[in-house]
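Entries read sequence, tokenised fold; example below:

***
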Amino acid sequence: MNKKLRYLGIGILIFCGIIFSNLFLQWCQNDLSVDLAVKFAFSWHTEKFFLASLVLLVLFLFLASLAGSLIVGASLYSLFIAMIGFATYMKMTFRQEPVYPDDLTMITQLGFFREVLGTGLFLFVLILMIVVAGLFIYQLYRSFFLAKNKQIMRVIMLCFSTLGLVYISHFNNETNLLRQAYNKTALWIPYSQEMNYYNTGFVGGFLYNLRVDAMEEPDGYSEEAIEDIAEKYQQEVEPGEDDDQPNIVYVMSESFSNPEHLQGLSISGDPLKKYDEVADQTYSGRMLSQNYGGGTANIEFEALTSFSMELLNPQMTTPYTMLVPKMAQLPSLVSLSEDRGYDTTAIHPYDTSMYKRQDVYSTLGFDQFIDQDSMDYTQTIENNPYISDEAAYQQVLDTLKEDQTPQFVHLVTMQTHMPYDGKYDNVNYQVTGDENNRNIEGYLQDISYSSQALQDFTEELAELPERTLVVFWGDHLPGIYSDRLQEQNSTADLHQTEFLMVDSEGGLTHEEGEVTSPFYFAPNLFQQAGLETTPFYELLLDLEKILPAFEPRMYLDNDDQWHEELTLNQNQQEIYNDYRLIQYDILQGEQYSLQNEFFD
């Protein structure tokens, strides 16, 4: 009788623990609102809440059976849930975006987490992780000496829970019973992962973003269709000058944007004065970013490949980590440069493993990757922990001066990465209109230093004997603006950063008010600079004429009007479909277009 009561008590404790952990995830997702978490679980979405609890139970049983101890399994489970919940709260706060399955690959980025959490909290979490890991290893050793009947029960439970997790991981399979159970009450919203998580719960949204193809196959996809597209745009290519091989430098500047574009914010001083002095003399404007407050790798993916995130499945949240490393070949500006005799270099003054850049850059075809450990210049400014833009530009200049071979250099800066408060002892700018003034003021000082470094860089390029073309852009706005300020601005306003293109010989004309998308950078640069394009770039130039900029739920027409839905006439739809077929062919299809020099 006592044993039955004991088992009953353990079962009740496990049940309560699973329910509480599920509520905790909802609490973190809903901005620490107990009311919203409880209503989601027991009023609005009860069925989905208990389906999620079943998933969490399988995870708990796996950890407990693996360790051979309910207590150690509970410790591992609790630590995992606590970390996921906290990460969700932080990501929702700064980026209005939930944690995705692929975000778990960042667990090894200890330097990044130390900077985000602060040294004290980071050390506490690290010590806690070490203690729990040590406890798990110790218990794992002891588990081999369990009694035979307990060992048999443990192995059975481990097998069943492992099979359960594998089955759950195929959530996006149409025949998956768990997915079918969710479908009875779930309202999936493909264009908004944030709303998916709100409507189906953290676990449901998380599962929705597991294994998925890059794109759905478009109607009419075939080898013949790709050949027809290649032939059509091959006829539009105009050759450039044979001996013109200028250096090309891409600079993706972390969080670089103009806060004065935002409604409700008042700034004293002009932090972008030096940037504007450069931009007003050349081809410049604004760039439409897919994300607010983050998503750097997605913007980089678009800029280097000229493929759009808008065409991908919504669950393909980060191609750099979910797609590119698995590919043997991916045409891009990097591969095109190499085919035309360029040396190609990537420079990122940070960790090489962030967003799997080491693997991604290898797939893209970079000859070398210079990171924070291999840079010759690592100076920082005052209390800023990140390598300065000035130092990064000096590394670029040295690369350009190494030999006479034309160079393609891709720089991803870090100086203007968050956090912003406390970086500089003297801040020359003041802000009114937002409760996060200290962060914004620190950010203004950051972009002021960045603007000065950019101007100095372009002036030094003009002294080089070789012609050099530069594309500079900010990847996204910083996630530092209050909800109240964000509500005063449109979605498009919160997704527009600065961009410019510079010719060291002054060959680019200034155009006012241009709004573009990063996948248009390469074809625009080639056209503006008089370089020979490719059939693929000609397709993009035709697409830009009908859609000057677009991302999911943000479409800019030729009348500078923004739309949430894509509306095209028959001729426009044909161009859009051509682009979609080519992108599918490369990212998910048979790569027929690689065989007919479409990207050369």
